[in-house]
Design brief:
By secondary structure, the protein is α+β, with helices and mostly antiparallel strands. Helices cover 26% and strands 26% of the residues. The protein has 4 helices and 10 strands. The chain has a 5-stranded mixed β-sheet with strand order 5-7-3-1-9, with no helix packed on it. A 5-stranded mixed β-sheet has the order 2-10-8-4-6, with no helix packed on it. The chain starts with a helix and ends in a 19-residue tail after the last helix. InterPro entries: DUF4843.
């Protein structure tokens, strides 16, 4: 009986060694967006002045072995899921994922939608050969495109009380024009104060020229920053 056990064990070990010596190669790689489709992007041409076309970066990543050569892959507008059309976005025939990179960046060229608000749903299609689309939740990128503007989250009670006063679209537009900055999300209090003062001094300068800047209520535009 012992000899039988030894024989069975020997066969098992030989089989295990044989499997370990078989090289396992996965010739397929996967490319996907770095964020899931739930992390949609809101892009408004409001922040780009009179621009009719803008270019934005979007990060992609690969799964598998590093590419030893550049690899092409396709990104398409999913027309079944989008309200946008080809006139809203310019996509190349293919993008290139650079060799020896785990992450890379592609550029999306977007066209001003005018008064419309459209949803762009992009889908990674791979290249049909050795590059495929990655995980389902990362295959798609959703972009909400418009020329609209709504009160930004950073324009809260503190900003209203200490820096800019009541929000209005004309005031927001002028703030961007005067300071060149339209996003205060990560600005500290001293920087916010400096920008608010820039706007205040501009309003004062225009008043001295008898060219008072009016707000939406027809009254002179004001800010609340002290200085």
């Amino acid at each position: 009986m012992k000899k039988i056990y030894v024989f069975i064990l020997s066969v098992f070990l030989l089989g295990a060694c044989s499997k370990e010596n078989i090289p396992m190669y996965d010739t397929v790689n996967y490319i996907q967006f770095s964020d899931t489709y739930r992390d949609s992007m809101d892009i408004s041409f409001f922040f780009y002045g009179n621009a009719e076309q803008i270019e934005i970066p979007v990060e992609v990543e690969m799964l598998g072995n590093l590419f030893l050569e550049d690899r092409s892959f396709v990104v398409e507008l999913d027309k079944d899921l989008s309200t946008a059309t080809d006139e809203h976005i310019v996509l190349p025939e293919y993008y290139v994922f650079r060799k020896e990179h785990v992450k890379d960046t592609i550029s999306l060229v977007l066209n001003n939608p005018g008064d419309a608000r459209v949803r762009i749903v992009l889908a990674i299609r791979g290249n049909g050969a050795d590059v495929l689309a990655g995980e389902y939740s990362y295959q798609y990128k959703i972009i909400n495109l418009s020329s609209e503007v709504s009160i930004p989250e950073w324009w809260d009670g503190d900003v209203e009380k200490s820096f800019l006063g009541t929000y209005s679209i004309p005031k927001y537009q002028l703030l961007i024009k005067v300071t060149g900055e339209g996003d205060w999300t990560n600005l500290d209090a001293s920087t916010r104060r400096a920008y608010a003062l820039q706007l205040k001094y501009y309003l004062r300068e225009m008043e001295d020229k008898d060219e008072v800047v009016l707000d939406v209520d027809g009254k002179a535009m004001t800010v609340t920053v002290i200085g």
